[in-house]
Amino acid sequence: MADPIRFSHLRAYGRSPMHGHHARTVEAEQTVAMQRGTAVHALLFGNRRVLGYPGATRRGEKFDAFVADNPDAEILTMTEFEKASAMAEAVRGSKLAMQYLDGESEKTLLFKWYEQDCRATPDVRAARFVTELKTTADANPGRFQWYALRMQYHAQLAYQMIACKEAEAAFIVAVESSAPFPVTVYQVTERALLAGEKSLSLWMETLIGCEKSGAYPGYCESVVPLDLPDDDVELDYGDGDAN
Fold first, then answer.
1. Tens digits of residue pLDDT in 196-214
2. Mutual angle of helices 190-213 and 17-25, in 10-degree steps
3. 0.85 exceeded by the pTM?
4. For every residue of 98-147, which 3-state class applies, written as one string?
5. Which of 74, 102, 71 lies closest to 173 in space, CA to CA?
6. Between 21 and which of 16, 132, 155, 216 could a Cys-Cys bridge form, CB atoms 3.0 to 4.6 Å apart?
């Protein structure tokens, strides 16, 4: 039996069925930014120890021994540990942000949607709202919304509200990953949540159809014309790395 469907699986289907199938069957590798985000969550919610490795690089016999001695810890480089600690402290210092981080943290919920087994793990689940804690390169409201749209955060929060039927509102606490680590709190609008749920429905229908047929195509299954845009563009004929 396949594992319950996560938001990350559905979002991958939004890219292509091939990406969706890959997400469902292959464990995703964590980037440095993802590891830092995980550490910030752990420092704030206290669900896992976070340590900075004092060595120069996170490899070799000494590092392996350090990992073996701390099997229950999220281990970062010392530089990343210090940054994650500063980010967590910045969030703690925001009275506004902490209002929306007050609730049950990182509890996995199993539920049915489209008659499929699904799972969601809200960062925070309170009586009437859900909140996601996001680390970002830019928490400025004028720019974060575009990043949030690209990452489909509105769909992620819509998915969590489907899982948490009692939730009436959805929030994002965004903390910037560079000093001075500003924190911004966003409420996902009803319009954005409705758009997110529409995307989720489309992705879920695609997933169900592909899993029934056993076919997982990529972007296109026919030849695609490569043309110039209608508007004049200035072409750069620099040295590329294309073969």
1. 999 999 999 999 999 999 9
2. 80
3. yes
4. HHCCCCEECCCEEEEECCEEEEECCCEECCCEEEEEEEECCCCHHHHHHH
5. 102
6. 216
